Amino acid sequence: MNANLGAMNDGREPHPVARVIPVGGGKGGVGKTFVVANLAARLAHDGYRVAAVDGDLEGANLHTCLGVPRPRCSLADFVAEREDDIAKLLLETPIENLQLIAATASNLATPQPSHARRVRLVRALRRIPADFVFVDLGAGTHPAVMDYFMIGEDGVVVIAPEPTSVENAYAFLRAAFYRRLRLAMVSHDVRTVVTLAMDERNERGIRTPVDLLREIQAIDSSEGARFVETMRAFRPRIIVNEVRTAEDIKLGFSVRSVCRKYFGIDAEYLGYINHDEAARRSVRARRPIVAAHPRSDASIYIARIARKLLVPRPSAPSTAQLGARMTPGAP
Ligand SMILES: Nc1ncnc2c1ncn2[C@@H]1O[C@H](COP(=O)(O)OP(=O)(O)O)[C@@H](O)[C@H]1O
Ligand SMILES: [Mg+2]
Question: Is 283 near ligand 1, meaning CB less than 6 Å away?
Answer without folding.
Answer: yes
